[in-house]
Design brief:
The chain has 328 residues and is of the alpha/beta class. It has 2 domains: 3-124 and 287-303, 3-Layer(aba) Sandwich (Rossmann fold); 126-283 and 313-326, 2-Layer Sandwich (Dihydrodipicolinate Reductase, domain 2), CATH 3.30.360. It is built from 11 helices and 14 strands. The N and C termini lie far apart (51 Å).
């Protein structure tokens, strides 16, 4: 069976990261795209050789040729479109984070189970060679028994966010669920879920210190995994450019692993024998390997490592960390 995709929300993320992959994977084809601006939808379709374009999501969902829908809109419409598509008998692949909040995730899962329509989430790091190497090093005991993990993510303040009329939707909690923490931290927690299993305890502090927008801009958290590993993390999205940092360190009884979540490609292993570095090349379309795996899963050939259940767990963790800020 050929998987014939329709994309809802053909914005920047679909230009290179994901969109072209649907035509590169065997037995997969992108047949329709949708964007609220019909002219932009037509432009995308023409540039990517897609036969059909829509300005109404329901029209794409009900296109009889489309049997799988990729939802690449901001999080406030993930649940809406995913539920509509599943009820129409279409498989769904949705961008991360899965939804604005955990409750929306659980409703999406309920509909998936009720309709028997597959639902997966675009956490592609679970398939990239850099991150598979980290998991391999942990699983093979190269650092002994894993003990702790520490996340640091400090990003420079974006100039556009100084102006309310120019701010990205990423800092509008009504659209994004929270701030940049949800957009970027979701990748980190999903990958750690992949390595260590579910987070079982979590608490955090979130603040808006710079005062440029409604969402939190600074976050600190402590958490522990079902496997026994304990973790901590700090995030800030208003630092000076020279203070930027992106690192994850995993310490074990006989060594440590250090890598970046967003500067993709390198892993550093330190043991009593010294430090070893591994470098990897990622696919041109960063989602390709996950899309390839997903197509196989929809055809019943294999499993997909990014599931609705694991993605919902990540939403739960994010929500627990920032909930005190939003319950004020």
């Amino acid at each position: 069976m050929e998987i014939k995709w329709g994309i809802i929300g053909c914005g920047n993320v679909t230009e290179l990261k994901s969109g072209p992959a649907f035509n590169k994977v065997e037995d997969s084809k992108l047949v329709a795209v949708m964007r609220r601006n019909a002219a932009l939808a037509q432009d995308y379709a023409q540039r990517h050789n897609v036969s059909k374009f829509y300005s109404d999501a329901s029209e794409l969902i009900n296109d009889s040729e489309v049997n799988a829908v990729y939802i690449a809109t901001p999080p406030d419409s993930h649940a809406l479109y995913a539920i509509e598509a599943m009820k129409a008998g279409k498989s769904v692949y949705v961008e991360k984070p899965m939804a604005r909040n955990y409750a929306e995730c659980m409703e999406m899962i309920r509909v998936s189970e009720e309709t028997d329509m597959p639902l997966h989430v675009a956490y592609y790091r679970r398939t990239l060679p850099t991150f598979l190497k980290v998991k391999e090093l942990v699983d093979n005991g190269r650092i002994g028994k894993p003990l702790t993990v520490n996340i640091k993510l400090y990003k420079a303040f974006g100039e556009r966010d100084k102006f309310p009329d120019k701010q990205s939707w990423h800092v509008n909690p009504e659209i994004a669920g929270a701030g940049h923490f949800y957009d970027l931290g979701s990748h980190q927690f999903d990958f750690l879920d992949f390595v260590f299993g579910p987070v079982t305890k979590v608490n955090g502090v979130a603040r808006n210190i710079a005062g440029y927008y409604k969402a939190e801009d600074t976050v600190s958290a402590a958490f522990s995994f079902d496997s026994g590993v304990v973790g901590s993390g700090s995030w800030c999205f208003v630092v000076d450019e020279k203070s930027e940092e992106d690192s994850i360190e995993i310490h074990g009884t006989t060594g440590k692993i250090k890598f970046s979540c967003f500067d993709l490609g390198n892993v550093e292993l330190t043991t009593k024998e010294g430090t070893q570095k591994f470098s990897f090349t990622n696919p041109e379309n960063i989602s390709f390997l996950l899309v390839q795996q997903l197509v196989g899963a929809l055809q019943g050939k294999n499993d997909c490592v990014s599931t609705m259940y694991s993605a919902a767990r990540t939403n739960y963790v994010l929500e627990e960390i920032v909930k005190s800020y939003y319950s004020k």
